[in-house]
Amino acid sequence: MVNWERKALNFINQTGRWDKDKHISSFLAFSIALVKNLLEADIALQLEFEDEHTARVKNASPVQLDEMVIDSAPVKKLLYSHGFKTIYWHEIAATETAFEGLLGHAVTAVIIPINTSPDNSVIVVGWNKPQAFDAGFQECIETIRLRLKEILMQSQQQLYFQRVAMRFAAILHTIPHALVFINNDGFSGWVNQEAATLLQLSGPGEQLPAIISEAMTQLRNKTTNTTDIYKEAVRLFTSPENAICNWIWEMETPETPTLKVSCLPITTQQVTGRLWIFEQ
To answer: Which strands, in side-by-side order, build the sheet including 189-191?
Structure first.
């Protein structure tokens, strides 16, 4: 007797380890292969809706179905008729045209909507012999569906924030001033290209605060008004505003002009630290 509860837990455990250890972009391909293996199915694939009339096969097993394109309208009509709930086909009708031959020799199938919107995708799993869709099996499928939806939502959020981060990083790297951010957690810091050049760091982007602080100390040691800078630093770190603007660092090296330095506190729900701005 098949232990469907154990298979569902197996799916959760394996996708949980993948979620932590590997890149989210390959999660769905791994998950569909895992579903096929756990359910002992003959075919498994993702059908992604690209637009109102087009659906494309992704992450298919067998792989020769990958990138196949079909009309999405009949599939969406089928999903609407079932209220976007999981569809259990105990017997695939010979007249069924929604999947236009994608199911091959399968005689039974399960259609699993990943999202509740027709603009996303479904997972299709098929068997070449009759499959009993008892209560245990359906509970297993529902657990798998919820887990897939959870991870895909996380991946969409992660990819969105990655795109936002890349966009703002590109903007900050083009600003002519040297920008340095040091997080109060003591573990993270960031510099743009100008700051990396000024502080002679390995490159822009994430840097350890200890490395940034040492580089800033080395820069300060190259000034001719070190005593004044020290006095201003004491005032900075003891003032209620915890900020300073137009702080002059007179550089002794001819290749580096006088620097106008600002230090501003950054406090949000997600981030707390200091932003340093060096203007030449």
So the answer is: 205-207, 189-191, 178-183, 272-279, 259-267, 244-249
CATH fold of 175-279, please?
Beta-Lactamase (3.30.450)
Q: Which residues contact 30 (CB under 8 A, 6 or more apart)?
A: 15, 18, 22
The domains spanning 4-163 and 175-279 adopt the same CATH topology: yes
* Domain spans of the chain, in order of start: 4-163, 175-279
Considering the domain delimited by 4-163, tell me its CATH architecture. 2-Layer Sandwich (3.30)
Residue 180 has a pLDDT of 92
pTM of the complete model? 0.62
Give every CB contact of residue 125 below 8 A, 6+ residues apart in sequence: 35, 36, 39, 41, 43, 44, 109, 110, 112
Q: Is 237 helix (H, G, I), strand (E, B) or coil?
A: helix
Report the C-alpha gap between 88 and 125 in whole angstroms. 10
Provide the phi-psi class of 205: left if phi over 0, else alpha when psi is between -120 and 50, else beta: left
CA distance 84 to 115: 8
Give the pLDDT confidence of 193-225 residue by residue, as tens digits.
999 999 999 888 888 999 999 999 999 888 888
**Coil, strand or helix at 114:** coil
Residue corresponding to tokens 């993702």: 46
Return the bridge partners of 43, or none. Answer: 126
Instruction: Please report how the helices 135-174 and 27-38 are oriented relative to each other, as an axis angle in degrees rounded to 10.
Output: 170
Q: Give the confidence band of 111 by pLDDT, cuts at 50, 70, 90.
A: very high
